[in-house]
Structures are given as structure tokens and as C-alpha cells.
Automatic annotation (TrEMBL):
<feature type="transmembrane region" description="Helical">
    <location>
        <begin position="46"/>
        <end position="65"/>
    </location>
</feature>
<keyword id="KW-0472">Membrane</keyword>
<feature type="transmembrane region" description="Helical">
    <location>
        <begin position="95"/>
        <end position="113"/>
    </location>
</feature>
<feature type="transmembrane region" description="Helical">
    <location>
        <begin position="72"/>
        <end position="89"/>
    </location>
</feature>
<keyword id="KW-0812">Transmembrane</keyword>
<protein>
    <submittedName>
        <fullName>Membrane protein</fullName>
    </submittedName>
</protein>
<keyword id="KW-1133">Transmembrane helix</keyword>
Length: 137
């Protein structure tokens, strides 16, 4: 589970780096875009991705600390990233981006669903005051 937490924290750091790049871009005189991108919409996009990245960071730290609540947000994030990679591979015709999104997502999903990940989840789903023989499964 710790490896899944490390990869999730790295995904959050990549998201925060994207937010910084958006803020740097919004601060420049010429936004350099094709279309109707405004400074306000760029700040809004940075805020949106900043909140998401902070949530991913919290979930990744939760996995690193073996917190049971962090498993579901990380699982959902990885499934969303698989959808992003599918779109990058197909309609966007960007196989390198698809590979960059899919490989960490599949690895984290494998960590969450392999035997050790399932055992961790079953151990932590028991009530804190339950005796070891009282687990329901």
C-alpha cells in the first residue's frame, strides 16, 4: 500500500506543477492561446486543478499512513486516469500521454487489489475494539 501512496503523492505533485505552470502562464502579458482563453478562466482552471491536486495529495498521504479512508478516493482517481488515458490514446491520438497516465494508474490499482492490498483492507475494516476472531468476511 505504501508504493500506491508514493505514486499517488507523485501524481499530486505533477498536478501541483501543472497548477504552477497555469499560474505562470496567466501572469504573462500574452496568453499565447488560440481561441477565447482569458486570464480569468486560466486562474479558474488553476484553482480547479489546485483543489483536485490537494485532494489527491491528502489521499496519497493517507495511503502512506495506512489510513483506510484513503483507499476509495485513490481507487476512483486511478479509474478516472484510465479514462483519460483511453481518451488520449483514441480521439486525441497521443499515445505517449496515454502511456504516462495509464502505467501509474494500473500500478496503483494493482497495489490496491493484490493479495497484500486486500489483506490490508480486510484487517482495517474490522472494528477497532473487535477481537481478532470476530471478523466477518
Amino acid at each position: 500500500m505504501r508504493l500506491a501512496g508514493v505514486v499517488t503523492v507523485l501524481q499530486a505533485v505533477a498536478g501541483i506543477a501543472f497548477v504552477v505552470a497555469l499560474l505562470v502562464r496567466a501572469g504573462q502579458a500574452d496568453l499565447g492561446s488560440v481561441g477565447s482563453l482569458t486570464r480569468t478562466s486560466t486562474y479558474g482552471e488553476a484553482g480547479y486543478f489546485g483543489l483536485i491536486s490537494l485532494g489527491v495529495l491528502v489521499a496519497g498521504i493517507g495511503l502512506l499512513r495506512s489510513k483506510h479512508w484513503a483507499r476509495t478516493p485513490v481507487l476512483l482517481l486511478q479509474l478516472l486516469l484510465l479514462g483519460v488515458s483511453w481518451y488520449a490514446m483514441g480521439p486525441s491520438d497521443s499515445p505517449l500521454a496515454a502511456f504516462a497516465f495509464a502505467v501509474p494508474a494500473v500500478f496503483v490499482l494493482w497495489c490496491l487489489f493484490n493479495r497484500a492490498g486486500r489483506d490490508w483492507w480486510l484487517r482495517s475494516s474490522a472494528a477497532p475494539d473487535a477481537e481478532h476472531g470476530d471478523r466477518q468476511g
